[in-house]
Design brief:
seven-stranded mixed sheet; alpha/beta
Length: about 375
């Protein structure tokens, strides 16, 4: 028998109800995706060939059959990976002048560094969702602990790679107009920034093992094991970890990375570090090259010669399949002999003072 057809008026009413939501979801998506055509030639980079950037190590094979149905699994996992209650926040207590060495964790990979009197902001994301759409995509588990207007006058903005949870168009727009500092980025990300109106004289693009001095700080782009992309194509821009060095103090910012033996060499050339800022969340056996698990983060901290470890890339966005607080609890098990700084989002860490270690997350987990 032929299937009955819906009356035209019902179809029209259904479309009228859905279309506004679709238009809202699509608003600004193309601009948020960033650069289209490449302006510059990166063929002189050892990381660039066949039109794309590459890791120095070959990809690790995921367990057989483990990636099948992963999208469906993520769509049906419910609230696993989210906190049970409100996430504890701290109101950032910033000094009038940047200190000798301190870090304020603002959630995920966004950290306000103080280094020898300079302010450096890493991977700034203030948007509610990490997605090209303002109404679809992973949403925050907690608000940003401070408004953008409360930021001090920055000396530099540091970007690790171009994924939406590390490079946020709306935040870049604000920083472009309200700050005057340069954006220090890996190769190719300047293409996105240019599309969003950042002038070339505020873009510093570096390849792995290249350095640039901004004021009294030296930024060195160092190897990471990851990938990039803001649309269907991937690896058209480079990903990186970073060394931020003053005259006497050094910070290592891991950004987003899987484990690579290259970290030992980074420690030998640029360490030791007074502070390491390393990702510990969104790990899974199906993507071992992409994100460190907590055990690997401790290994990297030791290999680069870190004194105090500030863990990031957990608590703010649900991007994997583990429980919300699993990363920090696993970290505690592995780091019995290591100095950990465990602030709630908004908390300021001074490595020379008492480190925050109270398990604030357990009230939400």
């Amino acid at each position: 028998m032929p299937r009955p057809r819906l009356p035209l008026v019902r179809v029209s009413l259904a479309a009228a109800a859905v279309l506004p939501a679709l238009f809202t979801a699509a608003r600004g998506v193309r601009r948020s995706m960033g650069a289209g055509m490449r302006r510059f030639d990166y063929s002189d980079s050892p990381q660039f060939h066949d039109g794309l950037f590459h890791n120095r190590l070959p990809a690790t094979d995921a367990p057989e059959g483990s990636t099948a149905g992963m999208a469906a699994e993520f769509a049906t996992k419910g609230r696993r990976g989210k906190p049970r209650g409100p996430v504890q926040l701290e109101t950032p207590n910033l000094p009038q002048q940047a200190g000798e060495l301190a870090a304020t964790w603002l959630g995920h990979a966004t950290v306000l560094l103080e280094l020898e009197g300079h302010w450096v902001l890493t991977d700034p994301v203030w948007s509610d969702r990490v997605s090209p759409s303002r109404s679809i995509g992973p949403r925050r588990n907690h608000p940003v602990p401070m408004p953008l207007d409360d930021l001090p006058r920055l000396d530099a903005v540091l970007i690790s790679h171009d994924h939406y949870d590390h490079l946020d168009t709306a935040t870049i727009d604000w920083l472009l107009h309200q700050q005057r500092c340069p954006f220090v980025v890996p190769l190719g990300i300047g293409e996105h920034l240019s599309r969003w109106g950042v002038p070339d004289d505020r873009i510093i693009e570096l390849d792995w093992d290249e350095s640039h001095r901004v004021g009294g700080l030296t930024f060195t782009c160092t190897e990471a094991r990851h990938f990039s992309g803001r649309s269907l194509g991937s690896n058209t821009t480079l990903w990186a970890s970073w060394v931020v060095a003053g005259e006497d103090r050094r910070v290592f910012f891991g950004g987003d990375t899987g484990y690579t033996p290259a970290f030992t060499g980074i420690g030998e050339r640029h360490g030791p570090f007074d502070l390491t800022v390393l990702p510990i969340g969104a790990y899974d056996s199906r993507w071992p090259d992409v994100h460190l698990n907590p055990d690997e983060a401790i290994r990297v901290h030791r290999e680069v010669g870190g004194r105090v470890l500030l863990p990031i890339h957990w608590a703010t966005f649900d991007l994997a399949f583990h429980e919300w607080s699993d990363p920090v609890e696993w970290l505690l098990q592995e780091a019995a002999q290591d100095a950990l700084a465990l602030p709630a989002p908004g908390g300021r860490v001074d490595p020379a003072a008492d480190l925050p270690t109270a398990p604030w997350w357990r009230a939400s987990a």
